[in-house]
Amino acid sequence: MSGLALEVSELSVAQGGREVLRHIGFGLPRGAFCGLIGSNGAGKTTLLRAILGLLPAQGRIQVNGLVGYVPQKIQLEPDLPVRAQDFVALGLDGHKFGFALPGAKRAAAVEAALRAVEAEGFARQRVGRLSGGQQQRVLIAHALVRAPDLLLLDEPLANLDIKAAAEIVALLKRLCRERGVTVLLSAHDMNPLLPVMDRILYVAGGKAICGTVREVVRTEVLSALYGHHIDVIGVHGRILVVAGGEGHDHRHDLVHVTAIP
Ligand SMILES: Nc1ncnc2c1ncn2[C@@H]1O[C@H](COP(=O)(O)OP(=O)(O)OP(=O)(O)O)[C@@H](O)[C@H]1O
């Protein structure tokens, strides 16, 4: 059996008639924590949706196991009469499961997923009334309840404060370590992920490069990816990735990084 949880080669994906990703390829080892990093519009959501088979794509995508997905920006109404534990149980009813689990097994699966994200304490509260960080835990438990091998998360740290984001990152890292789950998590800021990333998958200009942070976050590597000069600069214990060049749109190209491990 392959030691890879996900293998992608020669993948091209178009959105609205435009090729957003062009001939990208990478592999993720089982149990790896991989940050999918890129500016807004770089194609992170497109890649995750292609892996899920939700978008037509050219090339090869092989997922070795079951996939769980935490989509971007779910809005949960405060008055939605659904408790956190009920929401997690809905994860068992996905069309791919095909049959209903008996009650006791169902309850045990929900309980295990809630425990994995340390959400037992608010399991009986209405999901729409939980804090952003608590809701994110419930969304992860919803994706975890079928015990996926590969967990895809689309910008799960957006809208969280630094502490809540760090807690989510730590619990995801624990899932990698203790359960061998492979995590692919998209973010426009790699900063909060630096302490945990085994791999970084950096997307820019329709291309992608995958490796360790040390291998990828380098002036020459990112310059080649962007197709113009990039500086990776250390400032006050942080590292800035700065894109320059005449006629280039600078708005999204400053990425703050605390340290290269
Ligand atoms: N349904 C669609 N129809 C047409 N173009 C689309 C569609 N969805 C996305 N795009 C375009 O594809 C490109 C990649 O979008 P995508 O959402 O994958 O980027 P992203 O890296 O996830 O960015 P963000 O962080 O802003 O979500 C963008 O230029 C976007 O405008």
Automatic annotation (TrEMBL):
GO terms for molecular function: ATP binding; ATP hydrolysis activity. GO terms for biological process: zinc ion transport. Keywords: ATP-binding, Ion transport, Nucleotide-binding, Transport, Zinc, Zinc transport. It comes from the Bacteria. Residues 6-230 form the ABC transporter domain. Belongs to the ABC transporter superfamily. This is ABC transporter. It comes from Acidocella aminolytica 101 = DSM 11237.
